[in-house]
Amino acid sequence: MNRPFWMKVGIALTLAVRGADSSIAQTASAHQSSLKGKTAAEAYQNIQILKEVPANQLIPAMQFITYSLGVECSYCHVEGALEKDDKKAKQKARKMMQMMTAINRDNFESKQTVTCNSCHRGSPRPVAIPIIMESGPKPPFESAPAEDNAAIEAPPPEQIIAKYLDTIGGAAALAKIITREEKGTINLSGRTLPIEILSKIGNKRLTVIHLPNGDSITAYDGASGWTAAPNRPVFEIPSVEVVSSQAEVDLQLPLHMKQLFDEVKVAAPEKVGDRETYVVAGFNSGEIVAKFYFDKDAGYLLRLLRYTKSPLGRNPTQIDYADYRTQDALKIPFQLTIARPNSRLIVKIEKAKFNVPMDDKKFARPAPRPAPAPPPQ
Ligand code: HEC
Ligand code: HEC
Question: Which numbered ligand comes closest to the C-alpha of 79?
């Protein structure tokens, strides 16, 4: 049951699922070839609450639950038979989904205001009694946080983005970048492995990690995404994740803010590490979908926080950019820290090259392998 760590990697990158759960997630994702256009109830065997949600949003919802409760899939699921209701926690979770829907319906105009995480905050047992402090007192909240932009002291978003563009080399230099090839290392479960990242305009990105027994791949082809790893079939990346990843994948992001978001606004300034930043938030259909943190003085993008929609709440992914260096006419980050509620990966780039010829076919999903023949009777 304890698989070698490299079997977990492919999923770790996109779903961030660990341990025995990787095989659960594999069984779950194996369904995916048949998910298109179906509801969860049609695609899966035993759905009683999330019946009407699009089938490919079921796994993002499950991910949201594991993040909120700080548990793994196996807390509720029997390995190899995800449809079974043998575990009490799974039955309880159904009741909780109904309760959450009722709370939001009765109090918050059916918006996703209260979620599993509002109460659970990373633990299966919520704490009802206020916690006694361990060290010095925290300052109490003095006034309600500012809600409108008028109270936020920051330049308009266009100005913050223009400064960032200037800092990295200018809009004209960035507009000339068609492809980027990066090679370096990734730190996974304490091991350092070689990684290659190919990017092309049109939201194409191929990330290849060279494992001892083969390659682990995460790819976006501009419209959809897929992952592959040694000894398992190719999985489709849920479309909600593909949409959310655009802010991370777009090679010319600062030139495309208007295409990616209906609305771009400044949010309250925050600190990233010890740096003061201006925060620019991107909205679609009135909902915040990504936040960008720019160094107040130097102008660099230090952090991207993006949200992936799910039927129960939104899953966050955070990328910290550091070690900006000049490559040809542009400055790009040579260190990325990709973090989710249950994982943290550090990528160090050693070499980067722009405008290397790259065929679109490189990003395309490989044809499915024929199903193995049934064993002889
Ligand atoms: C806290 C409990 C809980 C955790 C943790 C959890 N699930 Fe679920 N899962 C459920 C419940 C409840 C359902 C049924 C939902 C319904 O009836 O609408 C379900 C249904 C499913 C189904 C559909 C199975 C079928 O055929 O009916 C899959 C697939 C699934 N979960 C995968 C996962 C994966 C992968 C993880 C880990 C990332 C996970 N779950 C973590 C509670 C959980
Ligand atoms: C309004 C607060 C609240 C929300 C929202 C909420 N829960 Fe809970 N949940 C609780 C409390 C309180 C308990 C503990 C109940 C008890 O002690 O019997 C609990 C217990 C559970 C348990 C049992 C844990 C165990 O093993 O003892 C599961 C599983 C669970 N919740 C899942 C969920 C899921 C999944 C969601 C989101 C769909 C959710 N909860 C949303 C308050 C909440």
Answer: 1
For residue 134, the SS3 value is coil
Radius of gyration, alpha carbons of the chain: 22
Helices 21-30 and 58-69, packing angle to 10 deg: 160
Three-class SS state of 91: helix
25 touches ligand 1 (CB under 6 Å):
yes
- Please report, as a single letter, which amino acid is at residue 297: D
- The pTM of this model reads 0.89
- Ligand 1 centre and the CA of 75: distance in Å? 10
CATH code for the domain of 113: 1.10.468.10
Q: 254 and 298: one domain? A: yes
- Taking only the tens place, the pLDDT of each residue in 158-189 is 999 999 999 999 999 999 999 999 999 999 87
pLDDT digits (tens, 9 = 90+) for 325-340: 999 989 999 999 999 9
Q: Which of 35, 39, 82, 92 to mutate to test ligand 1, by most ligand atoms within 8 A of the CB atom?
A: 82
Q: Is residue 167 part of a domain?
A: yes
In this structure, the number of other CB atoms found within 10 A of the CB of residue 138 comes to 7
Whether the CB of 38 sits within 6 Å of ligand 1: no
Q: What are phi and psi of 107, to 5 degrees?
A: -125, -25
Beta pairing partners, 331:
326
